[in-house]
Amino acid sequence: MRDHEFLYVQKRNDRTKAGIEKTVYGQLPDGQTADLYTLHNAAGMTASITNYGGIIVSLTTPDRNGKFEDVTLGMDSLAGYVKGTPYFGALIGRYGNRIAKGKFTLDGKTYTLVTNNFGNHLHGGTKGFDKVLWTATPVEGDEPALKLTYTSKDGEEGYPGNLSVQVTYTLQKDNALKIDYQATTDKPTVVNLTNHTYFNLAGGAKRDILDHVVTLYADKFIPIDQTLIPTGKLQPVAGTPFDFTKPTVVGTRINDSTDTQIKYGGGYDHGWVLNGTGDSLKLAATVYEPTSGRVMEVRTDQPAVQFYTGNFLDGSVTGREGFPYKKRYALCLETEHYPDSPNQPNFPTTVLKPGETYKTTTVYQFSSKKE
Ligand code: GLA
Predict the structure, then answer these.
(1) Is 65 in contact with 56 (CB distance < 8 Å)?
(2) Is 86 helix (H, G, I), strand (E, B) or coil?
(3) Which of 69, 334, 336, 337 is catalytic?
(4) Is residue 198 in contact with ligand 1, taking CB distance under 6 Å?
(5) pLDDT digits over 111-161, tens only?
(6) Candidate list 196, 212, 270, 337, residue with the active-site label
(7) Quick count: other Cβ atoms within 10 Å of Cβ 277?
(8) pLDDT band at 15 (very low <50, low <70, confident <90, very high)
(9) CA 308 to ligand 1 centroid distance, Å
(10) Does the Cβ of 312 fall within 6 Å of ligand 1?
(11) Contact 283, 297 (CB under 8 A)
């Protein structure tokens, strides 16, 4: 390991080469050490990731003048993450999004999960994959990667089966961060993994994202009830504030209180059903920020994307440099299966059985344009 660390330090001096830098990030309350890995590509983009929660601590991408800035919300230190954030940058599992009342039935047996959100189960429970220490293996190369593994024990947060999870972050040459998820189980269980990065493409997250221009390649969305659980029916976006099929300024209809769904979500906090089927990567979303010129394209093989506009941010979480993150200072695009699928027979299944391999990929690609 010492040789490795030496290698990282060497590479740090040559920013024109791709590489990985490793530093100790800090001590967890139980005495374990978390590390911080900074992946950088030859184009100058960096992705800093800690093995605590697999959290993306920062992502620097160029604006239209080539200026690199962090486009994520995050904390200054490990202690900040341990104290608690609304899932900034984190890996989410075993089930991303909500499971109604924290209950589901599989093969005739009812399982009771930890409830942590208005009586429902959210993002894997009180100690989800965002709050555990993963084992990290850095993979050097032109496209540096960080492989994270974690074994979620049978019964953890109420889920059946020992689940072996592997997530690999790869920083590609073309300024894209690829996330590959894989999992296997020894008992039938449910799985829905995602990443919960909060983006503000203006850089530095110093203002809201209402000017961001978003396109979602989805003709339908997933309506919810007051507790943000799907009603079970899908609704066409046409003629609603949920129509992002053409590039649309986020703020245009986000406060349309005449729309029940906007009211329930406190803005956008819904799943959009992505057009196209099959296992191949498809364009899910494009985001453009006009002042910086930054563009983000999200590709995935998942059936849906949760578009969340930071409606619950209220300035109480103080992020980097002591800056308070206020309402709608970021947006999330969480690629995933539909919320509450374990209880919704009409939704695509999220059941994983022994002998099967859960395998999905999402790519966040960054570029910029003049106007
Ligand atoms: C998800 C949910 C939101 C909210 C955030 C975290 O995106 O859909 O309702 O809980 O996580 O605050």
Answers:
(1) no
(2) coil
(3) 334
(4) no
(5) 999 999 999 999 999 999 999 999 999 999 999 999 999 999 999 999 999
(6) 196
(7) 9
(8) low
(9) 7
(10) yes
(11) yes
Query: Could you identify the residue written with the tokens 């059941």?
Result: 351
Is the CB of 41 within 6 Å of ligand 1? Answer: no
Distance (Å) of CA 344 to CA 239, 260, 339: 26, 22, 9
pLDDT digits (tens, 9 = 90+) for 203-247: 988 899 999 999 999 999 999 999 999 999 999 999 999 999 999
Q: What is the pLDDT of residue 13?
A: 55
Cα distances from 62 to residues 67, 205, 283, in angstroms, run: 5, 15, 21
Say which amino acid occupies 240: T
Q: What is the torsion angle, in degrees rounded to the nearest 10, for the CA atoms of residue 147, residue 81, residue 22 and residue 1?
A: -70
Beta-carbon contacts of residue 179 (< 8 Å; ≥ 6 apart) = 167, 168, 169, 170, 195, 361, 362, 363, 364
Among candidate residues 286, 287, 294, 289, the one with its CA nearest the CA of residue 67: 294
Cα distance between residue 336 and residue 169, in whole Å: 17
Q: Please give the single-letter amino acid code of residue 193.
A: L
Q: What's the gap in Å between 40 CA and the centre of ligand 1?
A: 29
92 lines ligand 1 (CB under 6 A): no
Task: Give the pLDDT band (50/70/90) at residue 2.
Answer: very low
By CB neighbour count within 10 A (0-12 exposed, 13-18 middle, 19+ buried), where does 29 fall? Answer: exposed
Tens of pLDDT, residue by residue over 324-365, are 999 999 999 999 999 999 999 999 999 999 999 999 999 999
Integer Cα distance of 71 and 255 in angstroms: 24
8-state DSSP, 338:
P
Pairing assessment for the beta strands 248-249 and 332-336 based on DSSP bridges: unpaired
